[in-house]
Design brief:
single chain; about 375 residues; alpha+beta; two-stranded antiparallel ribbon; about 35% helix
């Protein structure tokens, strides 16, 4: 069986960002207007007044301080409270494909080999811009890659599921190298009028090149083992047609956007993922407490810290349990890959780490890697 290597990664970050203070100002202005418009019903006890948001509330609940977005103006406009991302003609490269291509080109440059050596393209993301043609095929064409391509959706776990799929293709001899991209326009399915979740997501795209160990050059990361797990739950759900403003109830209909029961998610997911990591590590002959670095899904500071403590058996330091959600927020499938891409410093050849994601489904994926 041919072993697989993570040979290169890439990252596209939008040039616009929104601080917590800016987001709170927009939400509070909208909420104040809503309360005024519904003052009579509030006074009569028919509906509850909306509670203001605050920077302190957001940071305590999530650890997030800012997020990158494709369109800042629409999100912080109290009269809109949603990104304004114009629809493009079918003949023009789509928004998600454009993001993915930018991340992919950075990965290809780091790889140092031509795109023609890629045999397959996977687009693994939470929400696709359209049902078909597959986003992956559009990325494939834009980069001039032969072979085949297809989309994958396992919510926030899509990247680890994509890495395992790529590694399995290589193990079977189907291809010698796979490009896996994770474009996430999370702002387009987030309800910015919901105080409990309006701060969670940001936009970004990542790319990973997984290559056969037989053809890989020096450097990179050996993939020691991959494991996937799913358990059905409605505690994180999104019924909305992604980037589709024609929902029956109108734009921003609450039951068509992202929604979660955060406390239930925390209670269910933290032990599930922690146990999965420890069991998988020991199956591979690794001591989880000896992992050099954790690149976890950037979901929530409290979840990440708790999982880090359970896996390492102590409070991990900042170098061991990488946190980037303060600047990027939750970027769904891309979060663990951003952390991996940005924080590979200080690890010597032979040392091991973990790329792990978890999210809606429930779904979870573990990818143990060793520095080459």
């Amino acid at each position: 069986m041919t072993k697989a290597v993570i040979a290169a990664t890439g990252l596209f970050t939008p040039d616009q960002s929104i601080s917590n203070a800016e987001l709170v100002a927009a939400y509070n202005a909208w909420a104040e207007r809503w309360n005024a418009d519904h003052a009579a019903r509030i006074a009569g006890g028919d509906v509850d007044a909306l509670t203001p948001s605050s920077v302190e509330f957001i940071e305590k609940a999530s650890g997030i301080k800012s997020r990158f977005v494709l369109d800042k103006a629409g999100v912080i406009d109290p009269a809109r409270m949603a990104p304004n991302i114009p629809e493009r003609p079918n003949e023009e490269l789509s928004v998600m494909a454009e993001m993915a291509v930018k991340a992919a080109r950075e990965a290809l440059a780091a790889w140092g080999k031509p795109a023609s050596e890629i045999g397959a393209v996977l687009c693994a993301a939470s929400n696709m811009q359209r049902p078909y043609p597959a986003m992956a095929i559009e990325v494939q064409q834009a980069l001039g890659i032969e072979g085949f391509a297809f989309d994958m959706n396992v919510a926030c776990s899509s990247a680890t599921f994509g890495i395992k799929t790529a590694a399995d293709f290589i193990a079977s001899g189907s291809v010698k190298a796979v490009l896996m991209v994770n474009p996430e326009i999370c702002s387009a399915h987030l309800n910015f009028k919901d105080r409990d979740s309006h701060f969670i997501f940001g936009d970004v795209a990542t790319a990973v090149i997984v290559e056969s160990a037989e053809t890989a050059g020096p450097g990179g990361w050996d993939i020691l083992g991959t494991r996937l797990k799913t358990v059905f739950s409605n505690n994180i759900r999104n019924n909305f047609g992604f980037l589709n403003n024609a929902a029956p109830e109108g734009i921003g209909a609450p039951d068509k956007m992202f929604v979660q029961q955060g406390r239930k998610v925390f209670k269910d997911v933290v032990p599930m993922v922690s146990d999965m990591i420890v069991d998988h590590a020991r199956e591979l002959g690794l001591e989880p407490t000896g992992l050099k670095r954790l690149w976890l899904h950037q979901a929530n500071i409290n979840m990440n810290e708790m999982i880090g403590r359970k896996v390492l058996g102590r409070d991990p330091d900042a170098d061991e349990n990488v946190i980037i959600l303060d600047a990027y927020a939750n970027t769904s499938s891309a979060g663990s890959i951003i952390a991996f891409h940005l924080r590979q410093d200080g690890i010597a050849a032979g040392e091991t780490g973990l790329i792990c994601s978890f999210g809606a489904g429930y779904s979870a994926g573990t990818v143990f890697v060793r520095k080459r």
